[in-house]
Amino acid sequence: MASNTATTPTNSLIDDTPPKNPSKGPVVCVFCGASPGTSPAHLEAARSLAQALHDNKISLVYGGGTVGLMGEIARTLVKLSGPAAVHGIIPEALLDLERERGGQIDEELYGRTTVVADMHTRKHMMAKEVLEGGPGSGFVAMSGGFGTLEELMEVITWNQLGIHGRGVVAFNVEGYYDGLIQWVRTAVSAGFITPGNAGILVEALDAEEVVQQLKEYRVSEDRFKLDWTQK
After folding, report:
1. Please, what is the angle between helix 119-131 and helix 146-160, to 10°?
2. Displacement of CA 66 from its chain's centroid (Å)
3. Longest Cα pair distance anywhere in the chain, in angstroms?
4. 227 CB neighbour count, 10 Å cutoff
5. Rounded distance, CA 38 to CA 98, Å?
6. Which phi and psi (to 5°) does residue 227 adopt?
7. From the CB of residue 12, how many other CB atoms can be counted at a distance below 10 Å?
């Protein structure tokens, strides 16, 4: 197994700045389940998103798993673009779970893997790679469970607070995120989310639309104007 261990301060702040190197290729962080789901459409969506990333020369950073949608998108993109296109970041405890399930994190199959101490470090590192990517970088949520939803809501909140300005896309396969999208509309009508900030999360119905939404993403004018560089 090819991996290296990293520890990153979890209280580091993330700047809301334009890409430092516009000539660098885009990086997309994909949040998704470690389960394949009950419908074959979810695995097919993972493969189609990997194809779209390959076609657009986009690198993937993800949670480092080898099973479910996580493993499917990583394996597929490695086959298409090579191991350098994929970076998995996984906490040690989840790596132990992968081993118990018979998972083998092989660089030739899943790309580069970094082992970290905890979930906060994992999320910080994934976000940092996105922010250092070129235009078209952002965050994508595919189908998943509690962890996927928590990761998605966190990057939406960071965007609203002005911590980052990258695109956030819900890849809505077979209506999986219809309930979440309706909840956003309800929160707007109830006065808890502004109409402008409702657009922080955008919907895509297929892989090509995911990439297009990231390329065309526009930052909400309703976001909080906060200075996260203060000591």
Report:
1. 50
2. 16
3. 50
4. 7
5. 21
6. -100, 105
7. 9
Question: What's the pLDDT at 22?
Answer: 61
Identify the band that residue 96 occupies on the pLDDT scale cut at 50, 70 and 90.
Answer: confident
What are the backbone dihedrals phi and psi of residue 52, each rounded to the nearest 5 degrees, phi first? -65, -40
Pairing verdict, β 3-6 and 112-116: parallel
d(CA 98, CA 90): 10
> 3-class SS at 188?
helix
Map 129-169 to HEC letters.
HHHCCCCCCEEEECCCCHHHHHHHHHHHHHHHCCCCCCEEE
d(CA 215, CA 138): 9
Phi then psi for 156, rounded to 5 degrees? -65, -45
pLDDT band at 10 (very low <50, low <70, confident <90, very high): very low
Please answer whether residues 90 and 98 qualify as being in contact, where contact means their C-beta atoms are separated by less than 8 angstroms. yes
Note the pTM of the prediction, 2 decimals.
Answer: 0.90
The length of the chain in residues reads: 231
